[in-house]
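*** Protein under study ***
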Amino acid sequence: MKSRLTICFVAGDLADGGGVNRVVSDLSAIFAKQLGADVTVLSLGTTGEPTYPLSDRVKLEAIADGRPIGWRKALSRLRRDKPDVVIGSWTQANFILILGLLLSGIRVIAAEHTSWYFHRRRVRALRRLIYPLAWRVTVLNPSELAHYRKYLGNVRLIPNPVPPMPRSTVGKGEKLIIAIGHLEPRKNFFDAIQAMALSRLEDDGWELAIIGAGPEEQLLRDAIGAAGLERTHIHPPTSDLASWYNRASLTLVTAKLEVFSLVLAEAMSAGVVPIAYTTDGPSFILDGFRDHLVPVGDVAAMAERMRGFAAEPIGDALRSSLAASINERFSPERIAREWEQLLNDSRSGSSSPVRR
């Protein structure tokens, strides 16, 4: 038996931004520091330095080759090194890892970072066939757990860790609303722009800052112009989101499909007041704060909720409650304990109960 648990994360290009890469960075650091594991991140198709730097306790191995050569090299390397646990980061990669390491004695954890209904029917069918062969499957919210438990006995709910954020300006937020994420159709920032226009909050000096980059950037700039907004702007992505959280009073999540939303949880931890569509992830994160949720796609309701929160001073009590909810449920220490329980089973071979 090895004295230290050996874990390998298999990730895509760590230089492409991406929320999954942020989670890989955070979890690998937690496993190395708090759990004392020997951790490696194996990056496929890498193009440069990671957007989210890895801990100095974590080893990085990069395979520059694309598919399928890169995958052949990755599987060969994993069979050679034989880590105790391999953790996949996206659905199709999980398929390859589960089948490619099936007879190797390596335990594969298929970590799901998107909703079960995001993929086409062919991928869903493959998932039903292949995921029962994984050692464990992890999901990020109770709705995902309920779906997978219909046909899996190896599924576990473990949310993403959310590090505590500084709250130096509690009660002193600017007339600033933020919306953060990759500028792509899934994030649906068009609704944030339309809600800002409908709310007419710019007339009262409020600003909307959309922070991110992506293929829809020019379309979103055109939508801002068409809506006649003058205090709404797109800003480039930054690793220093804390500076935005410290300035903002409100944050919007207008994605029509969101399995967790790390930026929502971080903003709440910093005391920023959220308004989000009732997708599975935000609904889970905002448990106990139902007034901050609006029906998916209801731009008028979003605008009305924005006006309501903007009209009244946002007190320290609400900000503190939001932060406490995040820090109690998703702190790195709590998530580390949940992963520790799961990973320790890799040594005993025992089954792990699902989180209810």
